[in-house]
Fold these 2 entries.
Entry 1:
Amino acid sequence: MKILARSLVLFIVGVILLSLSTYTVDQREYALVFRLGEVIHVKKDPGIFFKLPMIDNVRFFEKRILTYDSTIPDRFITSEKKNVLVDSYIKWRIIDPMKYYVSVAGDERKAERRLSQFVNDGLRAEFGKRTIQEVVSGQRSEIIGILQQRADRDSRQIGIEILDVRLRRVDLPKEVSESVYQRMEAERKSVANELRSKGFAESEKIRAEAERDRDIIITNAYKEAQIIKGAGDAIASRTYAKAYSKNKEFYDFYRSLEAYKASLNGKDDILVLDPSSDFFKYLRGPNKK
Amino acid sequence: MEIMQNLVGKIFSKKPLRASNEGPPDLDDLFKDLRNKIDNLFRTGPKRLNGGGNFNQNQGTSNNGSDRIPVLPIIIIVLLIWLATGFYIVDQGSRGIELRFGKYLQTTQPGPSWHLPYPIETVEVVNQEEVRTIEVGYRTAGGGTTQELRESLMLTGDENIIDLQFAVQYNLKSSEDYLFKNRSTDSAVRGAAESAMREIVGKSKMDFVLYEGREEIALKTKELVQFILDLYQTGINITSITMQNAQPPEQVQAAFDDAVKAKQDLERQKNEGLAYANDIVPKATGSASRLLAEANAYKISVENESKGRASRFSQILDEYLLAPVVTRNRLFLEAQEQILSSVSKIIVDQKGSNSLLYLPLDKMINKQPRSLNKDQSSRGSVNSDKSAADRINSTTTERSRGTFRTRERDAR
């Protein structure tokens, strides 16, 4: 029993001592070792290390990339004196834990405040030089580049590297948005009107073209028909001429009779006749006078 | 302080001692005949320790200890349990990241693995292949989706505002980077995606984003997001960006719908025009065909007619030449007969009187159609013609009494 108790006590005490006199630095951390308030080691690599228990104490700092996200968008003024709301985020990393600790006492929030100051100064300067158009579309990456370099230069003094600054949202303030909506609406209306007029125009064009086609077809056919009829008339005329020219005098007589018969054939026609005419010669008496 | 260091010294010096006593042969025995070994330890353990041991404090207590507690087996069992905590299982699609004293050691593939137990080594299992999704501009919760206007409204290159919702799917290409390079890596995806989408949309025209350019926007955004995330070494692989919805904002939706409707109106009007064209042009073609057919018919008929007439004339002419006077008179009289039989006639003998003759021709013509009909239908036409003539007579009697007579001649 005693041997057990003794070895157990020894074991526990050993473990406690071991844990007090060692510390583990994670892959994702830096460690600063303080001996009575004074930094004696800066550990940038992971592993297990010894320290003096009680006297030395260790503080760990994030080695990974951190994000500062300004949740409330900031107002900036562009070169044409318009307000824009900008929501950005900053990717940063501690590169010098010693400086970092000294400058912001290892307080992340304090560090972020400093960072946002750096970045906002840069943003203000860059936005002031540009129009909304340029900020929104053209020169986004350019602004980001300038901001990143500028903020990075400043932040290195507090042991921080700024990897990236991103403009997440660049929006117009509410009252400006309203006027944008109105403009969009007006634009759409004009597009709609244009489309409708265009539709009418196209429809008219198609109709007119169709009518033109119709007229061309009809008149062409009429022309063809007249040519054909003319040809027929010509043939008929030749036939008549050939036959009738055999005896012109008789044709005159014969054709005249035909014409009389054809033209005087109804009760509508009233002939006023003289009974002394040749036709009635026997009406007056049996012998020709 | 000295005491503590002493103790530490003892613990450390004890370990090699034990190891030398129970070297490899003893461990073999242990596995071969554990029971025997335990029994042996019960009886001779303390002696052995005493014999081999060279530090005094333990010697005394061991000799005095009569309880014979199985110290070594307990230690061994505790040791085994401790070692057993090093077992872990990595699911399919996941990776185990082993750290030795906080330092990256190795990555294990799916299946069972073992690491040196805490606190020497630790393991973190990361699901590498699972496709994760983040939603931008909306959130799916329960059965429905809610819109996040703050995220979804964005400015386009032509300073319009559009409402755009999209989803980003991603998995990991490097579990190590995912774990070590960023804190809260997943949130980096949202930031990068929002920023990238706004940048791409900011460079595009509204109509392009809303209509034809959706696919292209998604593709470009995917590339940019991947670029940004690679910049941070997140170890994330964007598999796809899908546009859920790209539409004009609510405030101008009606105007946009109207524009779409206008486009349809345009199509409709065009179609109506085409329908009209398709109606009249074929009809015209039909009419043209009719005109041509009629012309051809006319041509043939006049040709035939001319041939017929010519032939008839020629034949009559032949006969006429044989007996000119008779034929001539016959033709004349026949013609006279035919004409006079069908027309109305008034025979006036003007030689006898010099008085003026008045003929109310207009009245006679007006009355004609009635009598004409009767004339065609029956023999009674003689009477009716007579009465008509009488009427003419009576109207004109006063003026030219007895100077004119009308006579009708029935055809048959």
Entry 2:
Amino acid sequence: MAAFAPGSWLRSREVALLQAAVHVGALLPLALLIWAGLHGNLTANPIQAITARTGKTALVLLVLSLACTPASTIFGFRRALRWRRPLGMYAFLYVSLHFLTFSVLDYGLDPGLLRQAIFEKRYALAGLAAGLLLVPLAMTATRGWMRRLGKNWKRLHKLVYLAALLAVVHYVWLVKSDTRVPYLYGAILAVLLMARTRPVKRGIAALQRRARGQTTSAEPKAVRSRPSV
Amino acid sequence: MKIRSSEITSEHLYYSRRQFLKRVGTLAAGSLLLSACAPSALRSLSTSTPAATGTPPTGGGEPAIAVSKQTDELGDSATSFDDVTGYNNYYEFSTDKEAVAYLSKGFVTAPWTVAVGGLVNKPKTYGVEDLLARFTQEERIYRLRCVEGWSMVIPWQGFSLAGLLREVEPMSTAKYVRFETLYDPSRLPGQNAGGYQWPYAEGLRLDEAMHPLTTLATGLYGKTLLPQNGAPIRVVAPWKYGFKSIKAIVKIDLVEEQPVSLWMAAAPNEYGFYSNVNPDVPHPRWSQATERRIGELSRRKTLPFNGYVEEVAPLYAGMDLKANY
């Protein structure tokens, strides 16, 4: 034991736990959904419950994956960068389940009904557009594709903002009248997007410099000095 | 309350229906993982729906097969008691349909009066017990089609509103009937929520209100109405979207001008005064061409006037039902 620094051992264990928590946390809604289904607890309208739950989980995960970069740039929480991809992929998993529930379970793949359900309803169109935008992103989420696409990879993956925006629009348009919760997601998304704009980034960098100049144990510095794992 | 025991469905039948729904839920969850092979499996399951039924007078422990089916006039089975009393759109208690039954427990419905007035010759305030004594309670099995795209078949007890309206003698100037729900935020906590003009109000044209299908319901499945279903007394207008069937009524006024309902005030482009079930008038959010009957999985086509076209179409002769949605 003496050969290992206890601090670093704790840190790597902490890292593993956090990493595991992301996967467990992302899969938990699916587990709970299946559990509820097996026990007949999906309300009297189970298909609608499955649609709503998969959709909400997808949106939450998408917003969380978009929160990773600001968490790193603003709070210096760089570990969050490693969660962007898994969170995004899990969001895509729930989007797929959401779409399959709608098209297969709900509409039995009936082309006429599906066409009507999608093209008559602006909320359905917005949702479909958001889902379709995520397809190329999920397909190119590997390191191989990152290498192959080079600079274009980043450009392509900026589409995720548009997808998230469309997902919020989809949500706003589908609720009956109380739009507070969908607008809350919209507000969170707006804050996350603003945190990425140049003026905000510059302002934060200036603040951090000033903080570093005044105190030696500023939080961002401490985090930054940790070895990346 | 006089309720024949024959009108009460025994608990074991509800229970067996519950089991069926559990299986449905299981399958629905399973098919999330096996979506490719799901549709046909779901179809075959939904066609084997066991009937929700009424027991014969001696019914207690007899097998389900000996029980006469409780169905609407189209032959569709009544929705299970558990679903009718456990899945409720009732914003005065909650916007969560599954929470209404729990949150409305203990809602006091007696004493309760309904004030009938406005443009009438004989305004009168009735106790609910007066209404029960004065008007014969009939069993009426009607479809309920929610604007959100789901539907139920519900065996109500109640009486035609027409009888009550005749008693108060509407004046010739009365053109519409306006209904109002109890306003008491301490008992109906949802009325504290902003965004709506509480109390809930609804309206019918006088001839719609006088139509024999228009019911004041006081019970369902042979039992006194439960709070989550609009106790102690509510409207049932089965050819209109469910929100027209206002719950927990305290006031009925005959008026000259078309009343503004809560939903018309909240979203006039979405909810019209008539709100007749109409598969040809789409809603921005919900398909009105199809619906899901609670307890079934595949969709069914929505019928014009919710299947009551013969009875009510004459009310709207010559009217543009797309403009008057």
